[in-house]
């Protein structure tokens, strides 16, 4: 696909500095962009890459306008990263017009399920009894939506997603386990995107709830009765244990673990690989990672950590002794 810069600006806005007739045929990062590519700069610390880039045009913020103009054409906008995101959407629509909604012949849809006429159900999907798939929602290949689960409008579920498998519930019975039937469902709101092979378990008694605008990466596990607030985003391999409540507009880094029955306030940001073992009731950025080190140093530091409690008590005793 080949597009003139003027066509892009006419569609998406922004202030074009340079020749509107310049043609681009691809999108690429600054460091590998060719003279036929359009790129972007959102973080000022990468300005050196901007100056050395061969891109035909670079999307920049107002503060980088002068620097960008010294090297060639640029599109100036208040939020270059957001502009770039919208450019990728528009570009895809131009290159690959959306196919008409359909249910693939290999999909299995229960007669008692409801699939909106504008929804698409991909190859080898399973939509079970009582499930509901909303308008303009797309299920890619091999998605399973369990019975009575509800997927809202304009959602995108990537290959292998499982919605509504049984939650992990068992009661001890001597040296065996008695299954607790999972009688709830999963309710997914509108404009939700769920990455490949992510699993969201149905609730035991109440529903598991994923509110509007939530974005989940690949290989995430959401336990039964979890409630995820609107516009929260989680990176790959996050695990959320049962009955946790996560507020709106939170972010959870890759590989983080949130233990069950905890509450995270809105606007909480959890760093990658952090284990959240207590409720967080105040917005902010939280980290619980022991930094990587060579093994011998790590073992020494780990041994010291075990002594912190006794060291604290000794310091308190000494403080009391030296007080006048």
Please characterize this protein's 3D structure:
The protein is of the alpha/beta class and 324 residues long. It has three domains: 3-95, Udp-n-acetylmuramoylalanyl-d-glutamate--2,6- Diaminopimelate Ligase, Chain: A, domain 1, CATH 3.40.1390; 108-225, UDP N-Acetylglucosamine Acyltransferase, domain 1, CATH 2.160.10; 293-324. 20% of the residues lie in helices and 27% in strands. The strands form six sheets. It has a nine-stranded parallel sheet, with no helix packed on it. Strands 10-13-16-21-24-27-30-33-35 form a nine-stranded parallel sheet, with no helix packed on it. The longest helix is centred in the N-terminal third of the chain and has 16 residues, at 80-95. It is flat and about 75 Å long. The termini are far apart.
Helix content: 10-25%
* SS-derived structural category: alpha/beta
Number of helices: 6
Radius of gyration: 25 Å
How many E strands?
35
List low-pLDDT spans.
none
Key features of this structure:
nine-stranded parallel β-sheet
Topology summary:
Elements: E1 3-4, H1 5-12, E2 15-17, E3 23-24, E4 26-27, E5 37-40, H2 47-52, E6 57-60, H3 65-71, E7 73-76, H4 80-95, E8 108-109, E9 114-115, E10 120-121, E11 126-127, E12 132-133, E13 138-139, E14 144-145, E15 150-151, E16 156-157, E17 162-165, E18 170-173, E19 176-179, E20 186-188, E21 193-194, E22 199-201, E23 208-210, E24 215-216, E25 221-222, E26 227-228, E27 233-234, E28 239-240, E29 245-246, E30 251-252, E31 257-258, E32 263-264, E33 268-270, E34 275-276, E35 284-286, H5 295-306, H6 308-322
Parallel strand pairs: 4-5, 5-6, 6-7, 8-11, 9-12, 10-13, 11-14, 12-15, 13-16, 14-17, 15-20, 16-21, 17-22, 20-23, 21-24, 22-25, 23-26, 24-27, 25-28, 26-29, 27-30, 28-31, 29-32, 30-33, 31-34, 33-35
Antiparallel strand pairs: 1-3, 2-7, 18-19
């Amino acid at each position: 696909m080949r597009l003139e810069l003027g066509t892009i600006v006419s569609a998406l806005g922004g202030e074009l500095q340079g020749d509107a007739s310049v043609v681009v045929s691809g999108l690429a990062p600054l460091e590998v962009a060719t003279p036929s590519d359009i790129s972007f700069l959102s973080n000022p610390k990468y300005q050196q890459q901007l100056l050395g880039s061969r891109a035909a045009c670079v999307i920049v913020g107002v503060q980088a306008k002068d620097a960008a103009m010294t090297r060639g054409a640029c599109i100036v906008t208040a939020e270059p990263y957001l502009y770039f995101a919208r450019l990728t959407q528009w570009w895809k629509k131009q290159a690959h017009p959306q196919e008409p909604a359909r249910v693939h012949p290999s999909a299995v849809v229960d007669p008692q399920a409801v699939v909106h006429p504008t929804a698409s159900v991909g190859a080898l999907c399973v939509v079970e009894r009582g499930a509901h798939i909303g308008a303009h929602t797309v299920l890619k290949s091999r998605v399973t939506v369990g019975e009575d689960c509800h997927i809202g409008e304009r959602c995108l579920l990537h290959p292998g997603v499982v919605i509504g498998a049984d939650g992990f519930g068992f009661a001890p019975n001597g040296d065996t386990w008695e299954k607790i039937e999972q009688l709830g469902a999963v309710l997914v709101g509108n404009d939700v995107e769920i990455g490949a092979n992510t699993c969201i378990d149905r609730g035991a008694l109440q529903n598991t709830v994923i509110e509007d605008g939530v974005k989940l990466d690949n290989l995430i596990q959401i336990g039964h009765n979890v409630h995820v607030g609107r516009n929260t985003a989680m990176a790959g391999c996050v695990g959320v244990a049962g009955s946790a409540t996560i507020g709106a507009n939170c972010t959870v880094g890759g590989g983080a673990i949130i233990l069950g029955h905890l509450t995270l306030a809105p606007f909480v940001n959890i760093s990658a690989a952090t284990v959240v073992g207590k409720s967080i009731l105040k917005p902010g950025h939280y980290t619980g990672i022991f930094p990587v080190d060579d093994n011998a140093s790590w073992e020494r530091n780990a041994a010291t950590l075990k002594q912190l409690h006794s060291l604290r008590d000794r310091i308190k005793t000494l403080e009391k002794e030296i007080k006048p």
